Amino acid sequence: MKLALNEVELTGKVVMQLYEASNLSLALSLFVVYDSEIILFQGNGEVEVGGGVPPDLDTVYNVGSVTKVFTGNLLAAAQRRGAVSNGDDLTKFFNEDAPPAWRVRNPYKPPESPLGGVTLEMLSSHTSGLPREAPCGVYCSPSFTTDLVFQYLNKFYNVMNQPFAHGHYSNLGFSLLGHAVARGLGVPYEDALVDLVLLPLNMTRSGFNYTTAILANMATGYTINPTDSAPYEQQESVYNTVSLGFSAPAGGMFSTPRNLAAYMTSLFRSDLSAISHETTGQRGPAESGHDYALYNEGIAAQLNFPDGLTGYSDGGWEPAFEYDSYVFTKGGLVDGFASSIAVEPVTKLGVGALVNFPDGGGMSGLTAQMMQTLLPAVQGILRRNQDEVAPLLPDNYETFVGTYGGILEVRDGEPDVPPGFLAGDITFYQTPLLLWWDPSQDYELGDKSYTAFRYRPRADRAAPGEKSCAAISGLGMEAVLYFNTF
């Protein structure tokens, strides 16, 4: 693991060298979270040109679209309070009795009732069919009130694609989502997010209000003249502390490495789906808006892309099946800043990268590289610890031993079938599953060797399999099937 962390640090230094070679003086923060701890922080460069002060865990960055995962958590928190439901139509929150009314034409509804048909769930999963940007763009000036935004929407906008049929990334959709949930709660969006999501996690240096204390710890955002070529001449962004206004739920939040790490560790708590603030008096999902359902919905995404490996979740995350695991990612880009975070919930591993420059692709690539380096190392440690501490098979494993005809489609027990080879279908405890071979997890019991298979629910929103496993024999080979959420 130490070697993997050293490689991450080296990667950060290489990225800084590339920036410096282009005459850019920037602040780059990298951090790694494992379970409840920050196991690596690297602050590169300086928070302001010529200042000589390196970024630390409390340096403030605008995080752009990373805001969307917090808006997704606000939706979950409002649902638990009964304030909103995933299936609520926008017209429930914006209508003649609660203006402005949502009157955007939806050509996919019957001609006699062409309005409505856009739900909170569609907005949260980028499947509403709405355009990417609001009429006021990303930075909505104070003159663009919600009333004025809706005037433009109702006059010039249509639902562009069949809802739930196509994925179309939409800042407009998440902006509408945040304001609709806020109306359901009866408070402004920014106040709702701070009170129900950020403060319960002690994320006191995250939010939307640029106070004196926030400004004192904030990195200066920089851009370059778009006509320049390397070496570049950087200039301070004029939008460093400008509110996004109506578009705030899609990308208006600021945060710090320490606060984002706290958010990740809250996602890794194993008791989140069992503890309720109302029943225990402790902070839990009802107060913080977190639940492992977030991951289940992400794995069975509302929209899977044609590659079958990536998609959009219901909570603002963008899940991808990588390195034999589902990794949940989200990147952010605004004028002067870029950010990217990624979590893998089974290993409880999280990574983040923030820079005071609009290099969105660079930050997303950086966290992908960090995950590619660290995840195999953590998985290896967990497997070794599991082998040493306790057997993988439960005491009642013999209950499941048997021949499962037609399931194992491994030709003649071919030993070089690649990882990820699809093994077939099975229904276990009324849960439809897909099975595939995972040679990275094998198991020996006595004189028998087992080959591991992993599963995922086939149907959207299918309940996880029982936390047990089964020994399987068929087609001349034996295997152990792990039924565990991942």
Structure description:
This protein is an alpha+beta fold and 486 residues long. It has helices spanning 2-21, 67-80, 120-124, 146-156, 171-185, 189-198, 212-216, 248-251, 257-267, 277-280, 285-288, 293-299, 360-389; strands spanning 27-34, 37-45, 61-64, 222-224, 234-236, 253-255, 303-304, 311-312, 318-322, 325-334, 337-344, 349-355, 402-403, 422-428, 431-445, 448-457, 468-474, 477-483. A 6-stranded antiparallel beta sheet has the order 2-1-12-11-10-9, with helices on both faces. It has a 6-stranded mixed beta sheet with strand order 13-17-18-16-15-14, with no helix packed on it. It has a two-stranded antiparallel ribbon with strand order 3-6. Helix 1 (2-21) runs antiparallel to helix 13 (360-389). The longest helix has 30 residues, at 360-389.
Overall structural class, as computed from helix and strand content, comes to: alpha+beta
Estimate percent helicity: 25-40%
Number of strands: 18
Number of helices: 13
Q: Which residues sit in consecutive blocks of at least 5 with pLDDT less than 50?
A: 270-302, 388-439, 441-486
Strand order of the largest sheet: 2-1-12-11-10-9
Beta-strand content: 15-25%
The mean pLDDT is: 77
Question: Main β-sheet: number of strands, strand sense, barrel status?
Answer: 6 strands, antiparallel
What's the assembly state of these chains? single chain
Shape field: globular
Q: State the end-to-end CA separation.
A: 21 Å
What Rg, in angstroms, do the CA atoms define?
A: 24 Å
